[in-house]
Amino acid sequence: MLISGCSRAPALVLTVSMLAAVSMLAASTSAAQDTLTTVLKPVVVTVTRSGSGSVLDAPFALTIISPDSSRPGQRHAAVDETLALVPGLSVNNRNNPSQDPRVAIRGFGARSAFGVRGIRIMRDGMPLTLPDGQTPLDYLSLESVGRIEVMRGAASALYGNASGGVIDIRTITPPAERLAVEARHWGGRDAYRRTAIVVGGLSPGRTLHYQGDLGFTRTNGSRAHAAQRATSVFARAGAFAGGTNYALSLLGLDMPVAENPGAITAEQLRVDPRGADVLSIRKDARKAVKQIQSGLSATRALGDAQVALSLFGGARSLDNPLTFAVVEIGRHSHGAGARITKPGSFLNLASRVTGGIDVQWQNDLRRNYVNCVDDPPLSAPSSACPDRLGERGIVTLDQRELVSSAGVFVNSELVTGARSRVTVGARADRVRFEVRDRLLSNSNPDDSGVRTLGALTPIVGVMSRIAPSHSAYANISAAFETPTATELGNRSDGSAGINPDLEPQRSTTYEAGVKGGADAAGRRVSYDVAGFATLVRDELVPFEIPGSNGRRYFRNAGRTRRSGAELGIAADADPLSFQGSYNYSRFYFARFETGSSSFHGNEIPGTPRHRAQAALTLSHSRVFGVLEAEFAGGAYVDDANSVRAPGYEVAHVRAGGLGILGIAGLSATLGVQNVFDRRYAPSLAVNAARGKYFEPAPVRSVFAGLSLRGGW
Question: Which of 317, 318, 327 minimizes the C-alpha distance to 369?
Fold first, then answer.
């Protein structure tokens, strides 16, 4: 077992207590149904790409959360805290500043070695996902987040290269003052310090608005060799002029230090969960990043139609010493989108048709060098490492990687009755990969090549309002996901060029669910229940080979099957509120052979069958308390199902208040992460070599925060 000797009883008691609390809340709400006076107000969503609508009208699984308002006292330091409690979605923090958290929806994305795969991620509608499907999250600031829209499944039919879903992070509504400023500071274990300045406001005529933040993070990390120094910036400004809404966004990051502790073995986790991989330390694995991205959007009504246009672009520089090489990347990316939504009629039925186009380009200059740090120690200069005092040896790869994508889509919603509608849509995508090798010699074969991948992904969905604030839905949707440029270029047999055998994974999902809520006599309850079955062809599977020093390769599994159920519930009876989610996941290989090995019937590694999260919040006057708990069952770590990581239960608590020391704008928060000091690994490196599967969570740690706000 990888859990420490401390009994699990406290966490189990805590979880049962929280479930009992929600039962009482739900019971009190149920008793009040006969006196129902209002229904839940519809929440307008944008992730559906139709320009309007509510959660109840969407014929697929859709969740909207407001992280700070529902669970106050968040540190805005990592997306696992921000995205908690969304059914069907899991965020496993690697606790590695050199690698982003592993974000997965219905298991898609759980294979990611770095960044986010299989999920489209946006900020205020601007894509953060690159045309090859990869999403770096390190430059995403969370200080000014107001709400998050999460669409599970049905992603490719609306957005293209994604299998799991879409996450659109929306900026908070600016304050009503002309200028509001808030200074925030957090401190905690391992010399953790984070300072942020947040500003926002409205012009006197309310035609201009702005919101932004500047953050500074310094920490030694929860593990050895995990220090980080970073400065992030986010700004968004909007204006209404000449009948058009304009918005300009900017995201930036300067992270000169982000050390990489790597994954460790089960024995290392048992002995020291704060330890790091010996090879990662010896090779001084880390990264340094500078990135900036901006976007401009415009929305305008033309008669009864609505038109939206967007332009975006950015640049990124990466210096990334790894255990097997030193990688340098200089990237430029840009894109554009256009969308029009128009109401009308079809066969005497009211309809709304949305059509659009998305285009993106990515231009990477990639160089790999031999990592000469301590390899072997104190050796004489060699042909690969002519300067033994330097980190970089000879260049082993020098190439230009060009990726472009284009997609067109159309979506039609037909109102077939007073309470029902049908949605039919489709999208066609084309993704082109090109490599231009700049390092040609007799000893280095030409890696140049071109490969184009495409897909047509339809969706058909039906929705019925079974009551004013309750709806049922069902849909069938297709999805596809291409390999990234790196995955296509990493060939385990060492041959040159783009891998001609690695195919995009394609899937078909059948989904049904019910969702709704009520507001009665001051008590509120909402729920979201979904069931799905997904058939996947050519699923992309990572693996390592001995001697690769952590380098990952990819292959296709013939057929996989994913089925599951998701439950989300929220209840509010002032001063108590509860949120909870539960996922059941049955994912397995239906047909998968490689060499002499057969994995038919094995579970897909990296995803537990059972996972639950809960949060109980007490808010009274100017004080609050939040109790959070998470449970995850065991999960296999390899395709052969030879090793199973144990499950875990963990709890966190924090409390705070406003008006400290009699100062109206001064607030304070005190919290404890991992209250019972569990020893566990929420993130798993699937199919890692030498048993290095585990990326440990921090041990018990105390943190505190202060903020001071003023407005004029």
Answer: 327
| CATH number corresponding to 9-284+298-374+389-438+445-711 | 2.40.170.20
Strand 593-594 and strand 326-346: the pairing is unpaired
Contact at 8 Å (CB) between 351 and 413?
yes
Q: 389: which residues sit within 8 A by CB, 6+ positions away?
A: none
DSSP string, 494-524: ---SS-SS-PPEEEEEEEEEEEEEEEETTEE
How far apart (Å, rounded) are the C-alpha atoms in residues 313 and 485?
19
User: What's the pTM?
Assistant: 0.91
Q: Which residues contact 452 (CB under 8 A, 6 or more apart)?
A: 430, 431, 432, 433
Angle in degrees, CA 204, 210, 213, rounded to 5? 140
Spell 464-491 as b/e; 16+ CB within 10 A means b: bbeeebbbbbbbebbbbbbbbbbbbbbb
pLDDT at 686 over 70: yes
Looking at the DSSP bridge assignments, the partners of residue 54 are: 44
Q: Tokens 């109840």 label which residue?
A: 56
Q: Report pLDDT digits (tens) over 104-126.
A: 999 998 877 777 888 999 999 99
Distance CA 79, CA 93 (A): 8
Q: What is the DSSP string of 547-572?
A: TSTT--EEEEEEEEEEEEEEEEEEEE
Q: Mind listing the pLDDT tens digit for each residue in 348-392?
A: 888 899 999 999 999 999 999 999 987 566 667 888 888 877 899
CA dist 322 and 392 (Å) reads 11
Question: Shortest CA distance to 165 belongs to which of 579, 550, 475?
Answer: 475
Round to whole Å and give the CA distance between 28 and 658.
Answer: 29
- Least confident residue range of 36-40, 197-201, 284-288, 479-483: 36-40
Q: Within its chain, how far is the Cα of 202 from the centroid?
A: 31
Rounded Cα distance, 234 and 140, in Å? 8
Cα–Cα distance, 116 to 132 (Å, whole number): 11
pLDDT at site 596: 81
